[in-house]
Amino acid sequence: MNEKWAALEVYHERTKSSGISDLFDRDPMRFDAFSVTFGDMLLDFSKTSIDPTSRNLLVDLAYAAKIEQKRDDMFAGLAINQSEGRAVLHTALRNLEGEPVYVDGIDIMPGILSNFESAKMFTRAVRNGEISASDGAPFTDIVNIGIGGSDLGPAMVTRALTPYHDGPRCHFVSNVDGAQISDILDLLDPERTLFIIASKTFTTIETMTNAQTAKDWAQAALGEKVKHHFAAVSTSLEKTAAFGINSEYVFGFEDWVGGRYSVWGPIGLSVMLAIGPEAFTEFLLGAQDMDTHFQTAALHQNMPVMLALVGIWHNNICGYGSRAILPYDQRLARLPAYLQQLEMESNGKRVDVDGNLISRNTSPIIWGEPGTNGQHAFHQLLHQGSRIVPCEFLIAARSHEADLDKHHQLLLANCLAQSEALMRGRSHEEVISILCEKGVTENLDSAAAHRTFPGNRPSVTLLYKKLSPRTLGRIIALYEHRVFVEGAVWGLNSFDQWGVELGKELASDLLPLIGSEEDLDERNGSTGGLLRTVAKLRQ
Ligand SMILES: O=P(O)(O)OC[C@H]1O[C@H](O)[C@H](O)[C@@H](O)[C@@H]1O
């Protein structure tokens, strides 16, 4: 591996002074050569500094990291999440033909397909009113209570697929901040509301606190009938029973589905209620399409592999520490937050699978907002800031609003303009000549300095026909496999998340001290000082 990294570093050092635009001058077919298509999706990475040699070196790196073997081990159900001793099988949730997948010698597919059937039956019954509120009338509102993977996936997907909603309205409560549940409950009628408590472990303090608050609120209006208004999704059936959830309304899954990879299974119940089982099946088929592509396409034509290698080029070779996710698709507004968990919780690690320190940077910092809003906020930094941030644009060729196509044309023009402006820039000389044409003569150099764009800033664009359930399934699976490939190249375990534990422990230690001024001596000076001030301010 080391010599593969070194070859990339040496090559980058030798070629880094040439610009991205020069690569287009040298190769008129660059767009075709540096883009990957899959169905009606296209990933364009021609606006990066990757050239034929660096691409080959990156693909060599992927081979040296044994990407294909590691990928096959994941799909085959090997316990690749070593620190938790688990298989990683979110891909089995979209294996709709039911080809056997074995965990410890047992085929898990019959169980997955039967859980899927139960979720579909429940969904149909809620949507057609057979499963109704305690007074016999249909549910109009669903509240998914969950956090992390039990919230971000369903919330992002539900919002992304708004044009396909034909079921009850869906709301999402995640934060333990009572402001969120309070604002949502204010909108709802307890008689018409079904709560889904979504938690893999059914121990997460935020979710359990919100679930209890929801139960108290519903019970105050419904009394004993409250049990008709609660469903749960979890791997712990004892805990859902202890919470008082009717076993017919409980949807189980297994620990080989990681939280941030769980939207494809029962955790996606709120999505299925909103869009219906048929559209949800399309969503799964989209992911399955990408799984097949990931498993079969040659590495240099493999969309997740190439997206991962572009990320590695920017992060490890060019030294760019963050990545902006810029969906020019308002309904993907939560995609950056979703990808923050997917990428940063999966690959934000500093030791490899064996516990040895990794000498390179791992996950970049992921952030972003939908376009065109971001253009009027932080794109200033993207174009002229002192740091280079590789950007990832996502856009559909067509919108769902046929009558508002003028909007969509503007959106497309803006998206393409941003990546072009980032790459092309505008030189000092160009600015001077523009200013001279306008008759500016005073402080010409300084005026030009402010208006100069350095350019040569990389971006990739993911273009798709329309944001349908199937396309969304493909997009999410694309990112999942990209994260897998990046993690595999760094040699880390993308499927555990020990880094969230310390804060949880300390929060439970601190809870009894909130509002108290006693026993603070053992805390560090800052936390002690903050606790004392909290106590004063709460008086
Ligand atoms: O689904 P749950 O068990 O409630 O977990 C919810 C979330 O909390 C954990 O702390 C992890 O950081 C996340 O990966 C997980 O998705």
UniProtKB/TrEMBL annotation:
Main function: Catalyzes the reversible isomerization of glucose-6-phosphate to fructose-6-phosphate.
Any single Pfam family the record assigns to this protein:
PGI
- Give UniProt keywords alphabetically: Cytoplasm, Gluconeogenesis, Glycolysis, Isomerase
Enzymatic reactions: alpha-D-glucose 6-phosphate = beta-D-fructose 6-phosphate
Please list every transmembrane segment annotated in the UniProt record, as residue ranges: none
**Superkingdom of this protein's organism:** Bacteria
The gene it comes from is pgi
Q: In which pathway does it act?
A: Carbohydrate degradation; glycolysis; D-glyceraldehyde 3-phosphate and glycerone phosphate from D-glucose: step 2/4; Carbohydrate biosynthesis; gluconeogenesis
* Active-site residues per Swiss-Prot or TrEMBL entry: E345, H376, K504
Q: What is its EC number?
A: 5.3.1.9
GO MF, one example: glucose-6-phosphate isomerase activity
What name has this protein been given in UniProt? Glucose-6-phosphate isomerase
> Of which family is this protein a member?
Belongs to the GPI family.
Upper classification of the source organism reads: Bacteria, Pseudomonadati, Pseudomonadota, Alphaproteobacteria, Sneathiellales
Cell compartments where the protein resides: Cytoplasm
